[in-house]
Design goal:
about 350 residues, alpha/beta, five-stranded mixed beta sheet, 11 helices, flat
Amino acid sequence: MGLFSFTQEIAMDLGTANSIIIHNDKIVVDEPSVVAIENKTDKLLAVGTMAHQMEGKEPPGIRTIRPLRDGVIADFNAAEQMIRGMVKMVNSRRRWFTPSLRMVVCIPSGSTEVEIRAVRDSSEHAGGRDVYMIYEPMAAALGIGLDVEAPDGNMIVDIGGGSTEIAVISLGGIVSNKSIRIAGNDLTADIQEHMGRVHNLKVGTTMAEQIKINVGSALPVLEDAPEPYIVTGPNRMTSLPMEVPVTYEEISHCIDKTITKMENAILAALEQTPPELYADIVHNGIYLAGGGALLRGLAKRLTDKIRIEFKVADDPLHAVAKGTGVALKNINRFSFLIR
């Protein structure tokens, strides 16, 4: 009997852009949150990277879906298929039996009861027997290595693909939080709109994402400036091919408004913070996690604006997933997990 484990424990960071699964303290799945489905039969064709490669290139018989929008489930059926497909990746070597699943799943701190139920139902339909949920900022704090149960104030800003989660954590709970549906995808949309308006160049989401990764910047002046990025695409008027070099200064101006909205949300969360915790935050600094934390110059811009030091987590992309993994190991200890 000792040869088989009948309960399998996995931690899942269900993100708008990427989903990550941790099993036995290791990241075993790190894939884009996309599924490809056949139109006639609703059969799952691909999940993750394979589905992402089909995005924007699919023939009429196939559709690609991103099941999460703004951090919450927008397409229930596709979300269930995606979770099931990703859990299968973990169990790809087990052919004989499927163990029952104990899962800890991440949810945005501003989730409504309906949104929480959608995550629970999708997880249960995908095979989860025991499903626990944890708020993203709390998971990010655990992933960064903070002692969330201490009587000390810590502030986390988690900039994901669909939502930015801002929370002040103390004594194992979220004291004040602000969850805004403005994040990495909005920066990508800004770049797409800018390329069309200024350069008359038609750019897809994937290309806009590449521009953001290569020359995205929150500041118009950087010390180690990236080289201009060459973008190839069709002219919007003539459909003839164009090549446009894009600089980081140009991108910093086009995403400025969205970053200002994030700054205002951080200030609003600080306004709601009790004075004793505010003093702790000024002393400890504010931690940045999520893919958005990788944007060049963002920490410096926020530090200059808010006058509190912003620190980027060691591995911002995986901070939330790692924290979910820590919560999975301490299910009985942590009272803030939602059953």
